[in-house]
Amino acid sequence: MDATRAGIGRRISLAVRVVFALVLLVGGISVLLAWTIYVGVEEGRQRSLEVQAIERIHSVIQHFIGDLHLVSQGTPARDHQPPRLVLEDLRARIAAYEAGERAQGSAEAGQELAQLATLTSLLARLETVSLAVVEAAARGRPPTPREVALISESAHEISAVVEELHAAHEKKFQRAIDTTQRQMLLISALYVAFILSGGLLLLYGDRFLSRNLVTPIARLAEAAVHIAGGDLSRRVPVRSGDEVGQLSRAFNLMAERLEADEAERLTFEAELERQVKARTRELEETGARLQATQAQLIRSERIAVTGQIAAGVTHEIRTPLNSLAINVQLLRRELSGDAGPPSFREFLDAVATLEYEITRINRILEEFVNFARLPVPKLEPVEIDALLQETLGLLRPQAAAAGVRIEPITPMSAASVKGDGDQLRQVFLNLAQNAFQAMPNGGVLGVEVGRDSERVKIAIADSGPGVPEAERELIFQPFVSSKTDGLGLGLPIVRRIVEAHGGSVSCEVRVAGGAVFTVRLPVARPGDEG
């Protein structure tokens, strides 16, 4: 890349340097010429001050000579200052002007100094004549013709010297004006040349950038659009070895690699599609076999579950049926007289046993039917506090008989859940009865209600021995029970009802002892009515 930097980068850098040098050159010359013009203007101002000073000296001298003529004619002078003071003022003015000329040190200063020396000598002669004229006038004597002639001669000579000084100043003015005009013309010509050269440089730069930068980049952009659209065969011409040429070559190389990769990808996709089709056929065949196997497993599982249910029901019903059979045999034997006449008490005991076992069979069958045919819940807003109070009210006689104390519930403010009131009542009845069975010697049943933004939590706790951790999940499965009687369907029915309501139920052990069953149900929303 460094070997090709003789292209656009170096050309642009060279052009920038040339333009910068031209700007510095034109700026420097312009500043120099402007300074020269300023010096010329300042010199003109100085010459104007000198002219004003000479004019002032000339005016004072003319005024003084006029006063001398008046005095020589016997007329009072216009200026009442003594001639000596007037002449001293003139000499001071001439000395100041002479000091300014000496400070300039120019070539014309020597000529002006000579003229000033002549003017000073003329003033000295005029001073001598003026003193004589003033003294004669004071004595009442008119001035001599010689004195009058000297006054007039001095006036003419002074005017001639002043004219020469004016002529010298006019030459200086003209020279300064000519110099300023030449410099202004030079600045104008320099500006015109700079504008023309700048315009040519801009025109050349525009054509150079358009040919070497803008047009190639436009081609690159057009080719990139085609490649982005899927035309990977698009290429850009390479016409230089500069940076843009390097970029064009890299772009073409990238396009070639993309085209090769695309061809390889298409080949790979075709092969992959072929293999996928082959594997799909295999998977379809395997899926068909799996579906057949799954159907067979479902049938087997249903048969196994049916057998399990049948075994459970048979096991639970066999005991009361055996008791019924034994009691029926006893009644038949006693009624037949083989064992002697039966007593009325024995007859009533046998009938009571028959009634108990029949009731037990009905309860077992009802529990099984409830588990097997659980209806779909009718969801609507249910006030959980009222439902719990009602349920616990139904349980108080049973709790009193079992020696269980029910702790009062702290009511919540409008705690409503979305559920079926009858099924939720069955949930809380089952959990409470399960707690009663866990406390055969009596205890305490506690009920707590809480909620967050999404759920209402109902916790039912007992003071029994608790549930081992290994059995906390098993107790929610059908036909799993630690009690000697019952099918073990109470807690499975609880789980099915709660999950049908979109909630959950869990079992934990309290630190103080006993088990706690927690039911979580969705909070009722304003649009859940009906």
TL;DR of this structure?
The chain is of the alpha+beta class.
Label this structure with key terms.
530 residues; alpha+beta; Helix Hairpins; Heat Shock Protein 90; 3 domains; 5-stranded mixed sheet; two-stranded antiparallel ribbon; 9 helices; 71% helix; disordered N terminus
Describe the structure.
The protein has 530 residues and is of the alpha+beta class. The protein has three domains: 2-210; 236-373, Helix Hairpins; 376-522, 2-Layer Sandwich (Heat Shock Protein 90), CATH 3.30.565. It has nine helices and seven strands. The protein has a five-stranded mixed beta sheet with strand order 2-4-5-7-6, covered by helices on one side. Strands 1-3 form a two-stranded antiparallel sheet. Helix 2 runs antiparallel to helix 3, helix 3 (107-139) runs antiparallel to helix 4 and helix 8 packs antiparallel against helix 9 (490-500). The protein is elongated, with a radius of gyration of 67 Å. It starts with 7 loop residues before the first helix and ends in an 8-residue tail after the last strand. The relative contact order is 0.06. Mean pLDDT is 77; it is low at 1-6.
Strand and helix layout:
Layout (H helix, E strand, L loop, with lengths): L7 H65 L10 H22 L2 H33 L5 H84 L14 H94 L7 H29 L7 E4 H19 L1 E3 L9 E4 L1 H18 L4 E9 L3 E7 L28 H11 L3 E6 L5 E8 L8
Parallel strand pairs: 2-4
Antiparallel strand pairs: 1-3, 4-5, 5-7, 6-7
Helix pairs in contact: 1-2, 1-4, 2-3, 3-4, 4-5, 5-6, 7-8, 8-9
